[in-house]
Known about the structure:
The strands form three sheets. The chain has a seven-stranded mixed sheet with strand order 9-8-7-10-11-13-12. The chain has about 290 residues and is α/β, with parallel strands linked by helices. Helices cover about 35% and strands about 30% of the residues. The chain is globular and about 60 Å long. It has helices at about 60-75, 90-95, 115-120, 125-130, 145-150, 175-180, 200-215, 250-260, 270-275, 280-290, and strands at about 5-10, 20-25, 25-30, 35-40, 45-50, 55-60, 80-85, 105-110, 135-140, 155-160, 185-195, 215-225, 230-240. S-adenosylmethionine binds near residues 51, 87, 167 and 193.
Amino acid sequence: MAEKRWIAETLFDDLGFRMSYQVDNVLYEMQTEHQHLVLFEHPFFGKMLMLDGATQITKRDEFIYQEMMSHVPLFAHGQARDVLIIGGGDCGIAEEVLKHKSLKSVVQVEIDESVVEFSKEHFPEFTKPVFRDKRFESVIADGMKYVAETERRFDVIIVDSTDPQGPGAILFTREFYAACKRCMAAGGVMVTQNGVPFFQPDELISSVGMFKSLFADGACYVAAIPTYVGGHMAMGWAAKDKKLRQHPVRTIAARYKKAGSFKTRYWTPEVHVAAFALPRFIAEHVRAAKKR
Length: 292
Ligand code: SAM
């Protein structure tokens, strides 16, 4: 019997370790204009997408990240109408965001058309409801260029990007965050994919430092995602209103009820509020993040 192929996540090679995944079946593999893309079937995690050797999404644990990147900023804001998603080409975030029926528009700006096109074939559970929704608009462009030029204003900005390498590097810069502030409506909030603090502390400290100097409030919240190895995943928080991060459970619960209490598997009003209670070592990173 042929030897099973194993695919390694090489994101932490510089730290001297790799996660390897047994491959049942490679569904899609190509070098796109922007990055190396491989989609394969894993015996436990199901479909797994890797870009440039970094795990992006698995069928088994995607709900944790997608729900926390979507419902935390939307229920914290409470009156959002217009949402901007930077990256997110698999449409998993858009699918969660569109569960908020009070939203008027959701714009997704993804740099790599291949990711969106192959997601239509391989992640129909996300792309079908999303592309059927008249409020959704898919833009293929560099997120940096879009936020620097758009005339539109957004209540919530969700940066579902790759890591700060290749096309994603620009999305971790002051220039990008300042341009996001420019197209953010008054009282708005931005959340960012900000790495795993245990292995990537500098990424978090750098982003939060820029958030603190550009916005009224700069911080992060956390969730544990099995295939984003390293314990807590940090989601960056940059808001024009300090109060958005201070709502008690009863306020979030009331907003969830008003939104129809749609089904979730990770996010709850209690988990929402608890996610901002940071373990001391992460809180110290956030405290150490000097305005820059
Ligand atoms: N949740 C995943 C994670 O945490 O690693 C990210 C998922 S999503 C697939 C990341 C997307 O960001 C990719 O499709 C990638 O093409 C897109 N991306 C990277 N750089 C970008 C840029 N400058 N502008 C817009 N999209 C970008």
